[in-house]
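Exercise 7. Given the encoded structure of a 219-residue chain, write a plausible sequence.
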């Protein structure tokens, strides 16, 4: 049996600087404000891992692994700016960034059994991923009365949810036609099938309040 532990540390710091121009209508007069905006996001991640191999019989190998991984949000999701779009019906759709997003983390568990003999190889593998800070886009749509008073029909913003999980089973097999002669012996037949299931708790927050905006250009 071979066991291989590992430990990795990653530090990420993302600085964003963006220009915002927003037109606001308070009901009595319209005004426009512009200026630079900045945001900073920092991640410090400790990522342990453990891999093991075992040969229980001739031609067979059992592999197992446990490791932690993470995925950073896209840069445009972390930018703190706001992008607005004028719809064909005259309403405004707003897309906001979120510099407070946390990375999506995952504890991964894999086990795989393989066997190879006389031109045949087959494997069965099971996997489970325990995911934290699930990332999704939260959209808020408003009713006609709110749209009439603010001009805003919807606001979309990336958010972190709660926990999620992904698990499944994979079967694979391959048979090489070694009984054939010459160049035909290189042919083979293979196939695989995967069964997978997932779930997630979004932990959605309260709706974002509407903004009073008459003509918000792209920022």
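Solution.
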């Amino acid at each position: 049996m071979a066991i291989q532990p590992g430990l990795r540390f990653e530090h990420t710091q993302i600085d964003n600087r963006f220009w915002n121009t927003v037109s606001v209508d308070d009901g009595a007069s319209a005004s426009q404000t512009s200026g630079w905006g900045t945001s900073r996001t920092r991640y410090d991640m400790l990522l342990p891992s453990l891999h093991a191999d075992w040969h229980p019989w001739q031609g067979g190998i059992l592999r197992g692994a446990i490791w932690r991984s993470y995925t950073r949000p896209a840069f445009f999701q972390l930018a703190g700016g706001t992008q607005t779009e004028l719809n064909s019906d005259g309403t405004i759709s707003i897309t906001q960034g979120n510099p407070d997003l946390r990375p999506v983390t995952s504890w991964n568990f894999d086990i795989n059994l393989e066997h190879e003999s006389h031109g045949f190889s087959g494997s069965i593998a099971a996997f489970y991923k325990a995911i934290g800070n699930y990332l999704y886009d939260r959209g808020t749509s408003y009713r006609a009365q709110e749209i009439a008073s603010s001009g805003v029909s919807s606001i979309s913003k990336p958010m972190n949810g709660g926990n999620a999980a992904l698990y499944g089973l994979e079967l694979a097999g391959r048979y090489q036609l070694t009984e054939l002669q010459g160049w035909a012996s290189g042919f083979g037949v293979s196939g695989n099938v995967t069964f997978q299931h997932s779930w997630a708790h979004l932990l959605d927050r309260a709706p974002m309040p509407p903004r009073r905006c008459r003509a918000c250009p792209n920022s």
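Remark. Confidence is low (pLDDT under 50) at residues 206-219. Students should compare their own answers with the one above.
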